[in-house]
């Protein structure tokens, strides 16, 4: 489109990629994790739950700093990065994904876990006496019944990943096309008082997210789902 | 009411020392609020209760003056930043030649759009004719302190930071970049209009002009403008 | 390990303040009634047999296989039981048809098999097949729950008051079918009911329970003597009033 | 306590105040709002839901900037502030509370709304035929039954308010004793490379939050509540 | 607006594909049975009377007051009905006692009143009062639901198969009490049941339904002639088999 600078387009694509990949992975991780946390209740599972929520209490830039240490050559991330010849997990798309995952995990786990709880044990017991393995019960019964919770998880983590910024800024290195997402670009514009551009980007982000979230929430209100 | 200073993030440590000294001398109380220069200027515009603004550039105080939010006569350059190229390891200090050899994956600097030191770093790279070559390896932080963190944590091997940040660090080696390679990093202070009648605030401005403050600022790793004509500019 | 057919079981344990201690056998075929006052532990016994009450101690052998003993515990989903719960817990996100075939071997193609249409006809579910189960009346739900258990092709059928919400016409159609089903499949059925008529018609053996204990199983026609004084049949005092 | 600078103590108290006030108000707002959004379903309620989530998609500092404008002399906030003779809503504790409320609202509304949904209509109908007014149904039936969702709402919004930083810095102005919360103080320490102090504060925040969240989650797992 | 006692009602409407169109009256006192095959709309009628089915068109006058007509709709919580649902939906976060007193006027002090202990005794709930309702057996839940509706002191009692999960001994204790309750309070009761014996004993009038339609109410002893061929009583075909 005319008038939209290419770096904004690049950042938009990257942002969407990050949000989609992160949200997808979050849900993939959160579903079994929430299931495991929901039943049966053990006291130490409350602790796992609390630990998951901890990244939230640190300012993103501070959490970003600790992540930098962890991702760097002397941390576990550097050790992993060496597997493919890199020095660090920072400054890469992978690094952004890991950081965003960590930060948004509670938004994904908590609603799904609540949904599993609300379902109660009846459907699980019914499935068991119909010969469904725990795995089949999980994906044929638990996940569809926890649908509302899953949608909430998606909405919150999607929105938050789009808007997340402190961590991304810190571990991303703002490399155009690789780690420069829209929120960082927007911040630049605001800082350098380019108000017109900033308002346009902010407006675009809000509009797009509004439509996406609206679409997602309308899924939430489908009364029933006919899985074939 | 205490005297409220709004201080650009890169100067906050030094500002704290200055404030401590001032408080000891005068028995007045001073509080420091920090943020990026752009953020602080916006806050002043929106009615933040600051008395004095120590910016990291000259442009923002000027803008505040022209929109009547700051007192023109009070504006002066309290410090001139010095750009250094720093790396955390021992051995020879990093220099132009090291950049040219390119034995590194990431070179850290800060965002030219938001931090003057970033703009200076890029001017330097351009002056060395290295900018286009190194561009893919540049990692950009949002402030000089974040740039330092990128390097200190080992994620970037070296980078451009402020002398004030690294002059007292025990680890690492640095080279001061010649001032001729980039436009000077003048940091201006200005008395804000709401404190126009505030005697304490004027007293602090006077203190900031004084030899003792200038000495402290220089020891922290900044230059100070020579001569009275600078201060009166 | 015994090689005999049928179920041999003994369970003891507690749920909250309620203690149970039961011991009984079921023959390899035929319908056995389980009866006793409300809250005496009937549903709990069924849950123990199905493997849903993991805290239960004791043993449970079925057709020569160990389902539970001191060391072993076959999880519920590996036990070939059909269970009609007292409260029909259907899967609310599925249609009636999906609920019915969920447990049947071969799952989605099951709805094409002859067994399916037979069960659907007897239970009068033809017109409801594509309805969502949340849109059913109480009796309709109960019929779907029965159908689901039967279509699972169980080797042991556990039914907890399965016909309590049904009208007489439907009952008199389903009851003979249940009897025939048990005979045809040659499987034992354990059937909880408070309805004397139902028990009389369906079963030839009855296990009586009270306060978490089983009495020795008695042949049905003996029941009048052993139990009726304890659990007066409904009609007697009412008609005498 | 010896060794802890007074400004840290001041910031700690302020942070707790902000977190408690914000969380308290959030729950107070979110409960009726979620109840209203949950029943009956109308298509435009999905839109309200999406709008609530929108603050999440903007980087906090950018949102903070827009809030600053809205709070300032030329915005609606300034108009309100003039009622008690101030020029702006920003740079005050009230301003922080409003900003934090706005930002954390989706974390409070969504889990509670899901919990109301999961409850279904049976308890509401039972209460109605027992003569309970809608209001009595709400506080005697709906709120206790949505307990898990309420706890999740509290945990997420509490943690997020403690960790939130971009907005608070922007609309608060980092004024000691008034708007300098721990996360901002922590940021200051990090910016001025006072790593020892920063690590101590971060560690303290994480420890305290861990205990608080653990306590809250253990409430979540109480099987039943006997409200007298 | 009529000043006569009792209920005069007519409802029509649809739920999904199910259409109903009913019209009937209840006298100002006495128990009336509502019967018909599973899924014919009995529960729906009760929900309409209670004001839970807001989509229903029609009218509903009770004791001379308008509960519903073309313009007016008194919300459910303002109608003095006691409702025992087909599926006992107790409040899971409350104890048995809290459930029982929730609807009774004066609420928390109600457990001290004599009515309370009478109901608790008849329903055999003494030992369960401090139990959480999620820890009850099916029959126990049903008894709590009955108690809750009675303690509400309704002016009209609607009961949807309230005794279906109870043993004969309990039934024969509760049934006479219900009869006496209706008489003592001088309130009408609409009672859904599939059990011929229950209906015979309790009620003197019966409303028959099929496929969403009511037939003219008939005096109970006439029912054999009008209905039995349509809804054969359970015992007949079974005994004849
Ligand atoms: N949400 C719904 N959508 C579509 N149809 C429904 C819905 N709820 C109930 N029905 C249908 O309405 C009819 C009447 O239901 P109702 O619960 O009133 O029956 P009932 O006479 O009480 O039956 P039972 O004796 O089995 O309880 C049934 O055929 C049922 O399938
Ligand atoms: N979670 C629990 N905690 C404590 N007691 C329980 C719990 N669940 C059930 N009980 C008690 O266990 C006893 C047996 O319950 P069970 O459901 O087996 O009875 P039942 O014979 O099936 O009764 P009904 O005919 O009423 O269905 C009851 O007295 C009940 O109160
Ligand atoms: O102190 Mo700055 O605003 O990072 O140059
Ligand atoms: Mg039972
Ligand atoms: Mg019904």
TrEMBL record, chains A, D:
GO cellular component assignments: plasma membrane
Gene3D superfamilies (UniProt xref): MetI-like (1.10.3720.10)
Domain ABC transmembrane type-1: 12-218
Cell compartments where the protein resides: Cell inner membrane; Cell membrane
Residue ranges crossing the lipid bilayer per the database entry: 12-38, 50-69, 89-109, 146-171, 200-219
PROSITE patterns given in the database record: ABC_TM1
PANTHER family recorded: MOLYBDENUM TRANSPORT SYSTEM PERMEASE, MOLYBDENUM TRANSPORT SYSTEM PERMEASE PROTEIN MODB
Name of the protein in question: Molybdenum transport system permease
Automatic annotation (TrEMBL), chains C, E:
Top-level taxon of the source organism: Bacteria
One Pfam family this sequence matches: ABC_tran
Keywords from the named record: ATP-binding, Nucleotide-binding
Residue span(s) of domain ABC transporter: 2-236
InterPro entries tied to this protein: AAA+_ATPase, ABC_transporter-like_ATP-bd, ABC_transporter-like_CS, Molybdenum_import_ModC, P-loop_NTPase
Gene3D superfamilies on file: P-loop containing nucleotide triphosphate hydrolases
GO MF annotations in UniProt: ATP binding; ATP hydrolysis activity
PANTHER family according to UniProt: ABC TRANSPORTER I FAMILY MEMBER 10, MOLYBDENUM IMPORT ATP-BINDING PROTEIN MODC 2
Protein name: Molybdenum ABC transporter ATP-binding protein
Lineage, top ranks: Bacteria, Pseudomonadati, Pseudomonadota, Alphaproteobacteria, Acetobacterales
